[in-house]
Structures are given as C-alpha cells and as structure tokens.
Amino acid sequence: MGSTVIRNGTIVTADLTYEADLLIEGGRIAAIGKGLAGDETLDATGCYVMPGGIDPHTHLEMPFMGTHSTDDFGSGTRAALAGGTTMVVDFALPSPGQSLLDALKVWHNKSGQAACDYSYHMAITWWDRQVFDEMEAVVRDHGITTFKHFMAYKGALMVNDDELFASFRRCAELGAIPMVHAENGDVVAELQAKLLAEGNTGPEAHAYSRPSSVEGEATNRAIMIADMAGVPLYVVHVSCEEAHEAIRRAKMNGKRVWGEPLIQHLILDEGEYAHPDWDHAARRVMSPPFRDKKHQDSLWAGLASGTLSVVATDHCAFTTEQKRNGVGDFTKIPNGTGGLEDRMPLLWTHGVNTGRITMNEFVAVTSTNSAKILGCYPKKGAILVGADADIVVWDPQKEKAITASMQASAIDYNVFEGQRVKGLPRYVLSRGHVSLRDGALDAHEGHGAFVARESQGPVNRALSSWKALTAPRPVERSGIPASGV
Amino acid sequence: MGSTVIRNGTIVTADLTYEADLLIEGGRIAAIGKGLAGDETLDATGCYVMPGGIDPHTHLEMPFMGTHSTDDFGSGTRAALAGGTTMVVDFALPSPGQSLLDALKVWHNKSGQAACDYSYHMAITWWDRQVFDEMEAVVRDHGITTFKHFMAYKGALMVNDDELFASFRRCAELGAIPMVHAENGDVVAELQAKLLAEGNTGPEAHAYSRPSSVEGEATNRAIMIADMAGVPLYVVHVSCEEAHEAIRRAKMNGKRVWGEPLIQHLILDEGEYAHPDWDHAARRVMSPPFRDKKHQDSLWAGLASGTLSVVATDHCAFTTEQKRNGVGDFTKIPNGTGGLEDRMPLLWTHGVNTGRITMNEFVAVTSTNSAKILGCYPKKGAILVGADADIVVWDPQKEKAITASMQASAIDYNVFEGQRVKGLPRYVLSRGHVSLRDGALDAHEGHGAFVARESQGPVNRALSSWKALTAPRPVERSGIPASGV
Amino acid sequence: MGSTVIRNGTIVTADLTYEADLLIEGGRIAAIGKGLAGDETLDATGCYVMPGGIDPHTHLEMPFMGTHSTDDFGSGTRAALAGGTTMVVDFALPSPGQSLLDALKVWHNKSGQAACDYSYHMAITWWDRQVFDEMEAVVRDHGITTFKHFMAYKGALMVNDDELFASFRRCAELGAIPMVHAENGDVVAELQAKLLAEGNTGPEAHAYSRPSSVEGEATNRAIMIADMAGVPLYVVHVSCEEAHEAIRRAKMNGKRVWGEPLIQHLILDEGEYAHPDWDHAARRVMSPPFRDKKHQDSLWAGLASGTLSVVATDHCAFTTEQKRNGVGDFTKIPNGTGGLEDRMPLLWTHGVNTGRITMNEFVAVTSTNSAKILGCYPKKGAILVGADADIVVWDPQKEKAITASMQASAIDYNVFEGQRVKGLPRYVLSRGHVSLRDGALDAHEGHGAFVARESQGPVNRALSSWKALTAPRPVERSGIPASGV
Amino acid sequence: MGSTVIRNGTIVTADLTYEADLLIEGGRIAAIGKGLAGDETLDATGCYVMPGGIDPHTHLEMPFMGTHSTDDFGSGTRAALAGGTTMVVDFALPSPGQSLLDALKVWHNKSGQAACDYSYHMAITWWDRQVFDEMEAVVRDHGITTFKHFMAYKGALMVNDDELFASFRRCAELGAIPMVHAENGDVVAELQAKLLAEGNTGPEAHAYSRPSSVEGEATNRAIMIADMAGVPLYVVHVSCEEAHEAIRRAKMNGKRVWGEPLIQHLILDEGEYAHPDWDHAARRVMSPPFRDKKHQDSLWAGLASGTLSVVATDHCAFTTEQKRNGVGDFTKIPNGTGGLEDRMPLLWTHGVNTGRITMNEFVAVTSTNSAKILGCYPKKGAILVGADADIVVWDPQKEKAITASMQASAIDYNVFEGQRVKGLPRYVLSRGHVSLRDGALDAHEGHGAFVARESQGPVNRALSSWKALTAPRPVERSGIPASGV
Ligand SMILES: [Zn+2]
Ligand SMILES: [Zn+2]
Ligand SMILES: [Zn+2]
Ligand SMILES: [Zn+2]
Ligand SMILES: [Zn+2]
Ligand SMILES: [Zn+2]
Ligand SMILES: [Zn+2]
Ligand SMILES: [Zn+2]
C-alpha cells in the first residue's frame, strides 16, 4: 500500500476544527499539515475529515434459539464501513458453564470475515471460580477489558445481584470495566407471562413487558452495586429518562458511570409498535423497546451535556422470516434491529444539522469517547500522527433516503426505511484502505484486525485511590466488651 | 367502668386545635363539648388532649437465633403506655414453610399479655400456592391487611423480586398493602463477608455493611415492583435521603407510596458506632443503622412536607447480654433497639418545640396517619364521638431526662440515655382505662385487644381504577403476519 | 329558616367516608347521625354529602383597561353555586398609590351582590410606609390574612424583589401568608415586544410570551425570598412542571409552600391556541397559558401526592367582545377564563372517576385544604357539628355536556364547551339555604356574607419558631481587630 | 530566544498521557516526540508536562472604594507563574456611564506590567444604546468575547433582569458568551441591613447575608434568561449545591451552561468565619462566602462528572489593612481573597492525589476547558505543535507548606496558610520563557501579551441553529376574528 493524502478538507475532532491535509502511510496517519502530497490523493473539498466511527455495541452472527443473527462479521462490517464506521465492538457470549477462553475462540473464528477492525466485550453469563480466574487471562492476555452482564433474560443470560457484585469486584481488581444490560429480568418475566395470559400476544406487548421504569430500576441497582464494588460502570443502551436520571444522580454524587444511548432510541418512538402491520412492529422488537418523545428529549440532552457518552446501535439483525418465529407469542420474536450503516448519517442529520449537538460532539459520541472509555485511544478515535488511519471524509451536502434495497446489511428491511438524511461519507478509510469511495464499497473480507485494549485506565485508577482512601476502618477499642451506657 | 371526663384541656387532632372537654363511656368517646361531667374527672388544664399514639412497627417477643427480643407484649405495651402510645402493630413472622395461619396463632398466644390494643402485619417470608391462598383468609377472616416483605436478611427472611411481584399482585387483588424492609440483601451479605475478611468485626462494621445507598436501591426497586403490580406500597424504617428521594420521585410520578421514619433515625446519628465502648455501639445496632445529619434533615423535611407519613420505633429490644452474642463478629449482634416509651416525648421535643412540625402534624405522624393508612381510622387515631377512647393528655411543660433506670422496658439500657425531653403525658387512656396517671402506670396485662383492620381502602381502590384504565391493550391487526416495510 | 335534614347519603370528608344524615339549623350543622329529622328533608340516596367547594382564586368584576371582567359577584357566585362551590375568595386590588383600606371598601361594595359566602385576599401592588402600616389593620381589623403579589404585569401590578422581601417580612410579623403570581415580568415584557416585532401578533403568541420556564423561575425566586423572610408561601395558578419542581424542591428542604393548580391547566392544553379560529384561541388567553400534557401529568401527580394543595379557577371572565380588544395585538387581549361552575364536575370526572385521586382527596383539594390554609377551617370546609352548612349533595351518576348556553356565567362561551362530565350536584346549600335543587338555582343576591379569617395559623407559628431558633448569631470575639493568620 | 527542549517527561493533556519530549522554538511548541534536542534542555524526569494553567477569573488592581486590590498585573502574574498558571483572564469594569472602550484602555494600561499572557472579560455594568453598540466593537475589534453581569452589588455594579435579557440577546447576536455573578442583589441588600440592625456586624455576618439559596436563585434566573435569549451561559464562582443543581437541571434539559467553582470553595469551609480572630475571618470575606462540606462535595462531584467545567480563583487580594476598613460594619470589608499561586498545587493535592479527579481532568479544569470555552484553544490550553509554549513541568513528589512569608502575592497573609501540598511546578514556561525554575521566579514585567479570542464558537452556533429551528411561528388563520366556540 502506497501513501495516501486527503486534501483540502476540514479536520474535525472531538476538540478541534481546522483546515489541514492528512498523509497516510502504512495504515497510519503520518502527517497532518498544509500542502501534503502522496501516491494517491483523495479530494476532501467541502468535507469534514473525522475519525472513523466506532460502534461500541454490536452482535454479529449472534447465536439465538438455534439460529444466528443474520448480519455476520462480513455483512456487518460492510454495513459499518458503508456508513462511516471503521470499528465495531462485539460481545463474546459464553454459554452457561462454557469457558470464557473457549467463547473467545468461537468469536475469533467468526470475526475472520471482518472488513474493518473490531474488538470484543466478554459477557459474564455464569459465575464460579473458573470464571473468576479466566477473567484475568481475558484482560491480560487478550486485551479484552470490558465485561458485560445481563440483568434481564431470566433463565438464560441473566445474573443475580450477588454475581454482579462478585464480578464487579473482580473487574475492580483487574482494572476492567463492567457493563450492564439493565432491565429487571424477574419483573420482565412476570409481565411477559401476565400479558400472554391476558391475550396480549402481539409485538406491541414486547414493549408493554419492558416499561421504562423496569430499565430505570435495574440501572439504579447496577450503579449501586458498582459503587459498592469500587469500579466504574458502563450502561449499554440507555433508552429512557429513568435510566438517564439514575446515571445523572450517580454522577452528581461523584460516581463514575457512562451511558450509551442507541441511534434507534434517539430517532424512533413507541408508535412503531402500534403499526397495523405485524411485520412492521415485529421488525422493531428490541430490548429495551422504543420509548416516547419525552425519553428522546432526555437522551439528546444527555449527549449535549455529557451525562451520556456514546451513541451505539446494538446492531443485531434478524430477517423478517426470523422475526416471524414470534407470531402468536411476542416472547419468541428475536430481539434486535440493525443500524450500523445508518447510525452516523442519522445522528448528523438529527443532531448536527439541527444544532442539538456540535460537530465536535458528534465526533466525540460516535468515535472518540468510545476509544477513550474502552481503552484504545488514540490508536482509534483520533486524528493524530501515529493513530490508525481509520478515517471518514464526510460530505455535509450529500443526501439520500434510507432504504433496505440499497443497504449492505444482509436483511430484507430497514427500520429507518424512507428517512431522509443529509450528511454522508464521501470516503471511508480503514487503516488506510479506502473502503468506501463515493458510495461504492471496496471492503475486503479479512482486512479487519482485532484491537487489543488497555486496562487500568485513568478513571479506574482514580476511583480505586478514592475508595482506598475512604474505606471502612475499625474503631479502636480497649476492652471488648466494655461496660457503659 | 363508669364514665370519665377530661376537663379544661385543648383538643389537638391532625387537623384542628380547640378547647373542649371529652366524655368517655364504655371505652369510647361519648361526647365532645364544653362543661361535660362524668363519674371521674381528669384535669387537663394546660394540656393538649390528643389521640393516643400508634406505633405501626414493633417486634415484641420476636424469635431470634434461639432466643427472643426481651420486651414481650407485656413489658412492650407497658413501655408504650408510659410514653403515650396506646396501640402497637407487630409483625407475625411465619418461618419458611410455616402456614400464615399457624404463625397468626403463635402471635395471638403472645399478645395475650398486652396492656394496650394491638394489631399485626403478616410477613411473607416464603412463597408458594399455600401462601397465595392463605393471604385471602388473613385479610378477610382476620382483618390483617398489610403484608411485610424483607428484601434483606439473605438466607433467612429475604424474598426475591419475582416473589415480591407475585405477592404484591396478590395484595392488589385483595385490596391489601405490601410493606418492605428495603435493603439489598445480596449486597449486604457480600459486604458483611468482605468486612469480616478485612478484620472489620466490631459493631461499627454493621453500619459499614449497610450503607444508605443499599437502602435507597432497594426502596427504588420495591417502588417499581409495586407500580408494576398496581398496588400502593408502605416502606418501613426509611432512614436516609436516598430512600426518601426514591419515594419523592415515585410520588412526583403519581405513584402511591408511604414512608415511615423511626424516631431513632430522626435523633441519633452514626457517630454512636464510633463510641470506644463496645457495648455502647452494639446496643445501637439495628437495620438500617443510624445515619449522618444530612439524612436526619431529609427525614424531618419529609415529615413537614408529607413525603413521609408516620414515625415508628421498630421496637425490638435486646439486653446487653444478648447483644454480646456478637462480640468478635458483628453479624451476630441481634439487630434492634427500643424506643416505645420515648418516641412521642422525643418527637415533641425535637419537632414541636423547635417548630420543625406543628402540633397537628405531630398527631398526624404519631397516630392518625397510621390509623388511616392501616385501615382502622377513625376507631383509632381520632378524637371523634364513637372513636375508641385511646387518649393522651399531654403536658407540654413536663420535663425529664431519659434513663434506663426508670423505664418500663425490660432491658438494661436505653439508647437515648441522658437526653432531656420537654413534653410528656399526664394521663394515658386505653379504651377509657386510665393506664398512666402522672407518671404512674396502671397497665393491666390482657387489657389490650386485637384490632381487625379494613382492606380495600380508598387509595387501593383509586389506584386499581387507574391501572385498569391504563392497562396495555392489544393492537388491532387484520392479518398476522402481514407484509410491509 | 327552619331545620333541614339531608337523608340517606354518604358523608365524604377529606378524611372519612361514612353513612349518616345531617341536620341543619340556623345555617349551621346541628347534628350528624342516623335517623335525623327536620322541617325539610333532602334525599341524598346514592349521593355523597360533602363540604361545599371553596374557590380560593377568583376575579369578579375586576377592573381592566377601562372595563371590568364580566362576571361580577352576582353572576359569579351563581355560577359557583351551580357547580357546587359555596365560597369564593376574590382579590382586592388597590391601584398604585391607593390605600389598602380604600380598596377594601370598593370590594365590599361590589360583593353586596354575592349569593354565597366570600372572602378577599389583599394585593400588594405598591410599597411604602403606608402600605406597611395598613397591612396590620387589614389582618387584625378585617380578617384578611393573605397578601397577593404580582411578579408579572410589569408597569402595572408588578412588584420587585426588594418589595417582595419587605412585604413578606411584614407578613411574617403579622402571621399572614404571602401569595404570588409567579412569572418573570421583565422577561415576559421583553418577549412580548420581541414577538410583536417579529409579527407574532395572534393569541398563540400570548403563550409563546409566557413559557413555563418563566413561571418556574419566578416560583423559585419567590420561594427563596419567602424563606429568607421566614414566612410560608402560597403560589397561585401553578401550571407547569418547572414551578411544581421548585415547590417540591423547597418542600424537600423543609420549606413551607403551598401550590394551587387551576382546573383549566389540569384539563386543557396548549393545542387550544393553535385553533384556526381567532376567537377560540383568544377566549383561552390567560396567564399562565395552557401547557402541554407533560405539565398536566405533573399537576395531577401533585394533587395525589400532596405537593400541590388546592384546585382553583382564577375565574376572570371576559366576553368575546372584550377579547376582541386584542385583535392584531395579543398583549391587548384581556387575560382570563371562566371555570367556577365547572371546576368540581370536571375534577370529579377526570380525577375521581379515573382513579387519579380519591373522593377524600377531591374534598381536600376543592374545599378543606383551602379552608385550612386560608384560616377559616372548620367554619368552612368541614362536615362537623357547628360548621357552616355549606354543603354539596353530589350525585355521581348525574351526567351532562358542558355548554355555554346553559351556564350561569354571564359570558357568551365556555372554554370547556362540549366536554362531558359525570358527577354533578343534586343539592347545594349555602349556610343552610338550598341554593341549587336538581339543576335549578335558587340563589339570592346578597345572601352571601364576608368571611373573616384567622392569622397566625399553626404553620406560621411553627416556622417562626424554627427561624428564631436558627437565626444568625454574632461570633464572640475578644479584641477587634486582633492579629493572627 | 533559542530553542528549548523538555526531556524525559510524561506529557499529560486533557485527553492523553504519554511519554515524549517537547521542542520549543519562537515561543511555540515546534515538535513533540522522542529524543528531541535544542539549545537548552530542561529535565522533566519523573514529571508531568502539562499545558500551563489558565485562571479564567482574576481582579488585578481592581478599583474599590477609593483604593485598589493590592495584587496588580505585576505581582498577580508573578503569583500565577509561581504556581504554574501562565494565563489570567481579568475583568474590565466600566463605571456606570463609562464607555466600554474607555474601560478597555484603562485595563490595557494596567496590564502592561503582566509577566504572563492575559485576556479580559468585559463587564456590563449599565445599559443603553451606546453599550449595545460598543459590544460589537469589543468583540470584533478587540477579541473580547465574554461579557460579565453582576446580579448582586445593588446600587453599584448590579443590573436588572430586563438589562440582562437585552445584553444576553446582544451576546447571542455577536456569538459572545454572557457570564454572571449570580446572587440576588436585592435580597443581599435587605439581609445586610437586617443583620446590621440586629447587631450582626462582624465578618461572619457577611456569610449570613449571602446564603447559598440566594446564589442558587440567581443562578437559576440567569439560566432562564439566557435560555430565553438563546445564548450559552457561563456562571462564575459556583460555590454551592443550589447553584450547581440549577446548572445540572438546565443541562438535563439540553441547555448550554458552564459552571466555574473556585479553589477556595473546594477546600475551605464556613467554619473560617467563626474564628475568634477578626482578621482571620475578615481576610476570608469574599462573595460568595465559603460554604459547608455538603457544598464542597457537590463541587468536587461536578468536576469529576463534567457538570462543572473549570476551576478559578477570583483572585482579588486585599491587605489586612484594607480588610480592616470593615471593622464594625461587615459590609465595608473589601470582598476578595487570593489564590493564584496556590490553585494548582491545592487542586492536585486534594483532587489528583486522592483520586477524586484524574490527571487528565486536572488539566481540563485548570487549563484546557477554559481555553475552549473562552475561544483561545488550541493557542492556549494545549500541548500541540503550533500552540503557545505555555507549559508547566509538574513534579508530583515536590512538597511544601503554603505560607504568606514565601508567596509572590503582595499581601501580608494567605488564606491557605499552613496547608501542605504535594505536587508543585519544577519549571513554568510562558511562551517559551522559563519563568519559574525549581522555585526561583524569573518573571519579566511586560513579558505578558494580550490574547484576543474568537467569538462564534461551536456551542454558540449550534444553539443558535436550534433556537431558530424551534422559534415561535404564527398560526395561520383565515379571518380574524372569526366566530366559533
Ligand atoms: Zn442488551
Ligand atoms: Zn446488545
Ligand atoms: Zn426491618
Ligand atoms: Zn422491623
Ligand atoms: Zn395571576
Ligand atoms: Zn388571578
Ligand atoms: Zn463575583
Ligand atoms: Zn470576580
């Protein structure tokens, strides 16, 4: 690969906006400045040159009820690149009883198809001494520094409060970060049973079974447990004001919590489930479900004010065929929607074009903040000399209507069908390779590489110091017991 | 028993303050007016004539680790009467697997000693079809309309979220009210183990193991579950801002929740556990533990503003001897303190004398609100013709220093030792019987009667209507599935 | 007037629901019990017998821009009685420079027409030594114990922060209660000018000029000033979450604040101003304007939880003709809507019938709480022997559609036109006089009497004690200045 | 000036921590990398190399009651450099009626003495057309893009709400940022008079006259006015939870507000005013006054969570002699304390060493965030090639006790006297000049240069877009008025 220069663009990072060219050599940024030259020149006139997007939350080829989510590391990363995203972080999901290291091998096998870089979070789906021990190897030997916990999916992935506490404490020791899918699984299961018994079997009942207060409660609980364990917390797919309120309340008490809204929850609302077409509604079944406008306003305010940190997709794409598994019983509809290709154009359109967030905030929440929190900054998420050349050249004038017929994803529909976006990638580079060029993908299966990440980030270390300083200490007593009143 | 007249006093109720005499016949208030006459006359000159106190939360002769709390229905109700309280509500605690109705018999046996009236809450300490069925009999046949749930005491009394949900729904059906002891039992157990392992074995570690955030979390969770189950909730011993905040947040969303602070948490703070004398600290071990001043301010504000509803004691008195069971291991110190005799004088001194609450609010939170919430108003908690003559004639000038050496309780110390109070009962009448007369008790074992209570109170009924009106409904669809995008 | 008995009804008060008959003699309740007899018998079978409504906020025959609000004490009190309200509290409004006592005379002249009882609040529209002095006479000689302050209407009624502070302190000394119309008048004036300049001249611009945040700010400010002055505060027409939040925040810190939502804000929303018909929109112009649903939910939750205390109307009725004064300039549309006749049926329909509030809470917020806060309980707002026989016999099965064509109010429209209500008065008694009988008014001009009220209520006294106890005290110092570092 | 290299240090920025050398040429950073060489070498072994501190809030040689604050641009900037601060932003204060441009000249005359770089905020102390017009020149011609407004100091600097609104709107038009000193000046004046009248004349009464609720109220009000005017807001010296709460509440609704706590409020508490030595207390008189620990915790949490943005000093140093002007009348004690030399060591000691904030957050709040918000990033506040070489080489092992006897400030005491700090500058460079070398100052009067700043920052632009998008629009109507009901 020769050198590449991106010319005449305006560089936009999480902190800065300035005019400069970029020189790329060996897959990295080699120089930033005016008048640079290289073997190939990409014209960025009228464009913003930004760090490629990082989607911190995807489920590619995720096993589910004997099948898998349809977008695998091949089609999923193609969709990512098509929309300006150059790195995804997927979830390695051990089965109950399965070794974490075995699960990791399974995921490494799948990810061979990836056309852009990727990393994994490791899920803690069960608990015993083996898991405790393997967590160290996962962090130290594999550079996987984030552990996901499901507070829902009772009887499957769900872990209880004592397991959460034990795993969170282990994360604290290892300088790792626990993540939670925060919904009260006991209550969801009870509501599902009650709804089915009452004849609420359609996809709208999926939303009825997972009200925002159920998410808010679990978020609040996970925050308390993380605080007791002395570790920062990352809350995935924050969809509602109640969860966001719990996060704000934690922060106002000095706790360290990050919240991740999804592009779906920012744009779509619960009205989708009232659609008379069953397929329409079922395709939008995901957990948490879409919420009403009040919640959307809350999420947008969180992005602007910094109480929420990153925007993800939870991309987990099932075909209409797969969704129909749940006809007559909403609990059998596979949970998940797509979004990898659309995340950045939608956020730009609804966020930057309206003035709800600045361009710099756009870069922060689509890329830089993920890299910082997850421990791979400035290799990723940065326009700095030495950083990986994961870059998107963004054309703010380019427009389209989103449609399944043109998407890279392998499924047969798109939950944003028909929405117009303004602001789309002109070029997308993955470690220097021009993977998208004016709408045409040139994505190579296997081009993507695994990104090992750093543990013991500054927030972990600071919090550990503070917890050590304020730890309980025994009261000095002379005789025990001593009399007195 | 002949008639009694209380003369020349000022009647103070939850809403009114006015001068009138009271005529008592047959254990009830027969007339309220000026210039009444009867067989016996009690002079209330300079005094306030108020409904006798109701303590909604006691544990008399409660079984614990092979022994029992030392104050039984005899000494406990004597202590109550000595301090102006004329009714206590105790907790019937079935062992795991024990029939609710059997537990009720056990409690009825103990309460034969009572010198003032009493009722019970029934605890739900396990869950299956039998419990579900017996709850109906408990409510309908026995007039016990409140069900207590422990979210702490893991491995003993604790019930899980699915059991809470099931029991709360059952309460909703029966028009009963669920109550919770709100602390996250999983986390408490983990913290206890961690503290012991670190050498934190003293009574102060009891407080370390139950931080306010652990209480706040459980309160928040119980509120959510009650809301999902469609039933009001009563949170016992609210000791901290976090729990109070959860209650306020619920109310601000239209939820129906009552909070009960204890007199101990209003007056005493966590500094007690730092006392160099082990006995001093151990005697104050209760759950939740005492908190710092910030929390006290929150509780007082709650009483004045109505976000907290009643003041109780959780009276559960163990001797120093019993407390010493936990030397070397704080988890073995029996949990509980006394307070029955001191609740009203302390609340008057710190509340009414300072202006933090009005006299009417004093009556509300010590008596009337409990009667209303628990379903025995205006038989109890009222100065109305026809109401039981449970009356306290309160002398606002009478003073003393609290001391164990003079108390009615059977234990050997008092956690309020040395505190001065101003405002004490001159007379206390239990269904017309003058049980306290200028400091001298005339309390008869067995005088007390069981008070059956009403279910389906107005708040239960209103909430059920609202929940029915807003219940989830299926979306109408023509064909399922139907195509569409 | 002979005696009257109300038979076979269910008495509903702010605390209690029970079956009893009422005997009325000499305009007062003479007996409550079973099987009572009197000269006249009113059948209350199937009905609730409740204290007559008290509307704490009306403007009858209020001077405005050279005209007056069209409903005067005659038609206004007829409307009140027609809807179950038996007492109104109007605002005496001195002109700038006018003696408070002179204004009082003017109001007494107008109120001669009243068909039900009434009282006044006194407005403080200017400030100097004379006002300071006359406030004492107003309280002590006239039994007017509440003083209204306008934080809006710049250049007319508005007073500034230093005047608020001075007047609030005077209230504290007198044991009186300050009230505020809370909107930032400076900002409203600026927004009005800006909107007119931009061509926003229609009635919808009235709403644009008074956003909820402008009300929230002023509420927050008034609360702080009252706290500094050491006096409780009554906030009229709380219409939005921001104002309600400020009140809740105050209460959570132990401050004493009452909030009064209007029936209009509970039922109607801002969509009314978008109506294509100018008259429709202009008729709904009032301050604060109608808000969106989020605010309505907040107000309803406040009524259920007690953070809001009473429901009023701010009845200030202008004809369409008068409203048209503001064609082409929304600032000239007279502010005000009607509601006196509809307040109770609407609150019952939307509150009690849905389960949002209980029947007892209905009585509290329509009647009893006003009487308590304003200092005329239990003369008013109570079903007690000796209380004034201001009574409504409420038929929960009676239905109608609201229509201007049938109303007692003198104006030509009704902002609730077409709304169906279920729950209406069968009889309404004003001091024993049957003023409404099955829909037929028998209201006598001049029957209404002025109600003098009590100052130094229990909340005022408690707060004064607390403020004295916690007042700033000088630090003891030996020499001043003394050296040191 | 030849080239300088800083060798063997660890570079710490607001985002990143990494090992590299720095090459400085011509007062700017010329290169960042390993193994750099230059004319002079500074050894940074064991040190952190950070952007020099920016103090966004100082008052050097500020006129006051016929005298001036004692630290002028000479001694003040020497103190700054001694503590690692390389830029100060002072306040140009026009007298009422004085041209803004004239005031600017006065300030430029004073600042000739500066030994480090500086900028100004312009105060709006009065309002008319001239001020409106000159604001444009101030922004466009002079690069002063921030306008300060005093909501306190009634009769002197205070402006009213209508003036705030007008000035804030002007800021919106100009892409400038309004700042507020937020205390309710009317209420402070009333409380001052009341306290003096009651004999509260000592310095502690200064604190009594400015309670936290008075600051919270004004903060809340300024936020509302800025929102109505459509402009971001910067709140100086946020000292208390109430003000912080108002800021958080604004952010949670998507508003753009920055809060600036002072190092004094983070470290010192109200107990200082109870000191028996008058001088001790008077030296600590500043507005807002010190608060209790609850408020300190709130401020620290704000720094960690990002709801507060920068740490300043409000350095305004008066000698003991000057303070004694207020003997017998606390309102005559000049308001202000020092802190320029101590801000960074204290924040490091209490923040980084304890783990309350990370090193990167330390850089953000002491330097980078100010540069971004105020419009001079990355010229200032950055370690980037091309940035000004304003650099501090920080030795985390260096310790001292703070003492007036060793300070650069010209006054005779230090409010932090005796406090131990760990973490101090080894070298401080101002545009490449080594101004501090191992504790020895080499600060040249006049070396400092004025920094012009950029208006129309990204947050201003985004907010303007959003406000335009959501601006009120007239309702379309056919005929006005049209009939209808
Ligand atoms: Zn999930
Ligand atoms: Zn997921
Ligand atoms: Zn308990
Ligand atoms: Zn208990
Ligand atoms: Zn008004
Ligand atoms: Zn009004
Ligand atoms: Zn200031
Ligand atoms: Zn200042």
Please render the helix and strand layout as text.
The structure is a homotetramer of 485-residue chains.
Chain A: E1 4-7, E2 10-12, E3 17-19, E4 21-25, E5 28-33, E6 40-43, E7 48-51, E8 53-58, E9 63-64, E10 67-68, H1 73-82, E11 85-92, H2 100-110, E12 117-123, H3 129-140, E13 146-150, H4 161-174, E14 177-181, H5 185-197, H6 203-208, H7 212-229, E15 233-235, H8 241-252, E16 257-259, H9 263-267, H10 278-283, H11 293-305, H12 320-323, H13 343-352, H14 359-374, E17 391-401, E18 420-430, E19 433-437, E20 440-441, H15 458-469
Parallel strand pairs in A: 1-6, 2-7, 8-11, 11-12, 12-13, 13-14, 14-15, 15-16
Antiparallel strand pairs in A: 1-4, 2-3, 4-5, 7-17, 9-10, 17-18, 18-19, 19-20
The structure holds zinc ion (ZN) (8 copies).
Family (chains A, B, C, D): Belongs to the metallo-dependent hydrolases superfamily. Hydantoinase/dihydropyrimidinase family.
GO molecular function, one term (chains A, B, C, D): dihydropyrimidinase activity
Function (chains A, B, C, D): Catalyzes the hydrolysis of dihydropyrimidines and of the structurally related DL-5-mono-substituted hydantoins, to produce N-carbamoyl-D-amino acids.
Describe this protein's structure.
- 4 copies of one chain form a homotetramer.
- By secondary structure, chain A is of the alpha/beta class.
- In chain A, 33% of the residues lie in helices and 20% in strands.
- Chain A has one domain: TIM Barrel (Alpha-Beta Barrel).
- Chain A has helices at residues 73-82, 100-110, 129-140, 161-174, 185-197, 203-208, 212-229, 241-252, 263-267, 278-283, 293-305, 320-323, 343-352, 359-374, 458-469; strands spanning 4-7, 10-12, 17-19, 21-25, 28-33, 40-43, 48-51, 53-58, 63-64, 67-68, 85-92, 117-123, 146-150, 177-181, 233-235, 257-259, 391-401, 420-430, 433-437, 440-441.
- In chain A, strands 3-2-7-17-18-19-20 form a 7-stranded mixed sheet.
- In chain A, a hairpin with a 4-residue loop joins strand 2 (10-12) and strand 3.
- In chain A, helix 3 packs parallel to helix 4 (161-174).
- The N and C termini of chain A lie far apart (83 Å).
- At the A-B interface, helix 4, helix 5, helix 6, helix 7 and helix 10 of A face helix 4, helix 5, helix 6, helix 7 and helix 10 of B.
- The structure holds zinc ion (ZN) (8 copies).
- One zinc ion binds at residues 181, 236-237, 287 of chain D.
- One zinc ion (ZN) is lined by residues 57, 59, 314 of chain C.
